[in-house]
TrEMBL record:
Gene Ontology terms for molecular function: kinase activity
UniProt name for this protein: Dihydroxyacetone kinase subunit DhaL
Top-level taxon in the UniProt lineage: Bacteria
The encoding gene: dhaL
Domain DhaL: 13-203
Length: 210
């Protein structure tokens, strides 16, 4: 893995590949995400994300955005319009805010992507009223956004650690919070899928840097 000073070119094609990789990863992980959600949620996280990222894939096949920011904005719109429950607005806000932060640049640097991801994460926190430690997707996203300033690999590791760290937590936001102490001992599905988003980003960057 190259460091942030010698990383891959982050152009429109890179962002399309990242989201395609995420769509494929969601297909593979859908059953596990639903299983996690069945313990502390509505048992639909996997199927909801499948529907959403299939819509993203279709939209990106029909439309070819001119810039990385436009790719994320389009993906965010699709997720908001097709994903049920809280996941659609939260994921949609993450990607739309990040896309807006990237602007119209044809290429962005890893540092600019890290800053944009932090903007997206801030939007998620504002929308959901949650913070790190509340057993939500932020437990994976916030440490990943900070670690992305170091490297893609560090961001992936931070996201995976954050998702695993939700197991002993008491849920304080979202559907899982209704369970009170019964939410303890279960990994948060939103944090798990968020870690998947970051690990596919890292994998896409590693492949591009070869």
């Amino acid at each position: 893995m190259t460091d942030q000073n010698d990383g891959p070119v982050l152009d429109t094609a890179f962002f399309r590949r990242w989201l395609a990789a995420m769509a494929a990863a969601v297909e593979r992980a859908a059953d596990r995400l639903t299983e996690l959600d069945s313990a502390i949620g509505d048992a639909d996280h996997g199927s909801n994300l499948q529907r959403g990222f299939r819509a993203v894939t279709t939209a990106l096949e029909k439309d070819v955005p001119a810039a990385p920011g436009a790719v994320l904005t389009l993906a965010g719109r699709q997720l908001i319009s097709t994903v049920g429950g809280a996941s659609g607005p939260l994921y949609g806000t993450l990607l739309r805010r990040a896309g807006k932060a990237l602007g119209d640049a044809a290429e962005v640097t890893p540092a600019e992507l890290a800053e944009a991801l932090r903007a997206g994460v801030a939007g998620v926190a504002q929308l959901g009223g949650a913070k790190t430690g509340d057993k939500t997707m932020l437990d994976a996203l916030e440490p990943a956004a900070e670690a992305l300033g170091t490297s893609f690999a560090a961001a992936a590791e931070a996201a995976e650690r954050g998702a695993l760290a939700t197991v002993p937590l008491l849920a304080r936001k979202g559907r899982a919070s209704y369970l009170g102490e019964r939410s303890i001992g279960h990994q948060d599905p939103g944090a798990t899928s968020s870690a998947l988003l970051i690990t596919t980003l890292a994998a896409t960057a590693e492949e591009a840097a070869r």
